[in-house]
Each structure stands twice: as C-alpha cells, then as structure tokens.
Design goal:
Length: about 250
C-alpha cells in the first residue's frame, strides 16, 4: 500500500469530514442526498454537490492507495459481463473476480464481441503478471473465441452455474445503479466502479468466526484511516463546526 499523503489543501472542511462523506457514499447504498442528510444530523452542513465533487476528486486517490491482493498462479478468474443502459444505449461492464470474490478488474465497453472479450483478460495479465490456474465464464461465445488467442495453456470452463462468484459481484452495483437512478455516461460508470470495487474489496468480510471478523473490521478501518489521512485526531468541536462551502 502506498503511504503518500493525500493533500486536502484549499479545502475548508477537515479531512475527516471529507473522507467520511466519500466512505459513506461508496461503501453503502446511499444517494448523495442521503449522505448529505446523515452529515447534517451530525451538525455538518454540506451540499450533495460538494459531496459529489469530493467523490470525484478524492475517491480515485483513495482507491489507488488501497492495498491490492497479491496475485497467484493458483488463482481462478471468473469473467462475466452485465448490460447497463446509459442514455438509452447499451453498455457492457466486463468484470473479473477471483475465487474469493475479490474484484480484480472491470472495463466498460460498448460492444459484446470477441474483441471486447479479449480486452479484460489482456489487461489483467499485464497487471497480475501471471496467468491464472483456470478461468471460468458463462456460455457467451466471445469468451471461447478470445481465450485461445490470449491464454491457450490455461484451462477454460464455460458453465453458468460455475460462474456464480462473478454474477454475484454485479448485485451490489445493481443496487447502487437503482439508488442513483442510472449513470450519466460510460466515463462516470467506469470511474464509479473503480472506486466502488476498491472499497468493497477492502471492507467485504471474510467467511470466518465472529472473533476473526471483528479483527478483520478493525484492520480494514485502520487501513482506510491511514489511506485517507484520518489517523490524526481532530477536536470534536472541529468536526461539528458548520461549513457552507468547500
């Protein structure tokens, strides 16, 4: 994980408030107006448009600095695509998750052909620097045509019931899409998913005993605070101060 400090220069709100607003918006199925209302309940007056700007400015920085899962040649890649309508036009979000449901990468594209199916695994190979043990997809023919050109030695299983991890990974985004009443552009969808999945990877709880789960949550919150620069303590009076502009 990178330790480069996030700069909050020229912002009147304390870093804790900015980071909390971004965390609430990308971590939970909340609209910008609901986040605005939740902050207001704490005595923090900030417009939803300001929260949107914070998300656009700081969200990508937070996401880049979050710790990534180390790749392994024992990994199993589940690849899947989901149709998202933007302005009445179909777009496809191509996503790859591993055997633990960790989102490895995702790309928004305007086609669902062989060329589009090749782009995600090609980019993944460059990022992971190693091929997986196996890839699993649904019955889409584009995968079958693309895979031999990219990873001819890797085992490929094509079966809908085997690809539940990838299909399940779409559910949280679908909930957010409904809450946000859709996305405005392919670029905004790509930007949102990059941040959304990075936080989801960090905070999704492992399947373990309750005691281990509590430790996991403490560790993830510590990492989040380190990434956002919230480790330093701010006086309570500062957090409750009313602000009108950024």
């Amino acid at each position: 994980m990178s330790t480069r400090a996030v700069s909050y220069k020229n912002h009147r709100f304390p870093p804790q408030i900015i980071a909390r607003a971004v965390w609430l918006y990308f971590r939970f199925p909340l609209s910008l107006r609901l986040v605005e209302e939740m902050l207001l309940e704490r005595g923090i007056v900030v417009s939803y448009e300001t929260i949107r700007r914070w998300g656009r400015k700081f969200g990508p920085t937070y996401a880049r600095q979050l710790r990534r899962k180390k790749p392994s040649h024992h990994d199993i890649w589940h690849l899947d695509e989901v149709v998202i309508s933007i302005g009445g036009r179909k777009h496809w979000l191509w996503r790859a998750v591993d055997q633990d449901g960790y989102v490895l990468d995702e790309i928004v594209q305007t086609h669902c052909d062989t060329k589009a199916a090749k782009r995600l695994p090609v980019r993944l190979l460059k990022k992971q620097r190693s091929a997986p043990k196996r890839i699993i997809t649904d019955k889409l023919r584009s995968y079958g045509a693309a895979k031999p050109q990219i990873m001819p030695q890797v085992e490929h299983r094509s079966h809908r019931e085997l690809n539940n991890r990838a299909e399940n990974s779409h559910v949280p985004l679908r909930k957010r899409e409904q809450m946000m009443q859709g996305f405005r552009s392919a670029g905004s969808l790509q930007s949102f998913t990059n941040i959304f999945s990075a936080l989801r990877n960090l905070f999704v709880s492992p399947r373990s005993k309750h005691s281990a789960l509590a430790i996991h949550r403490l560790k993830t919150m510590t990492e989040w605070k380190a990434v956002t620069g919230m480790m330093a303590r701010f006086p309570a009076s500062t957090l409750c101060r009313r602000h009108q502009t950024t």
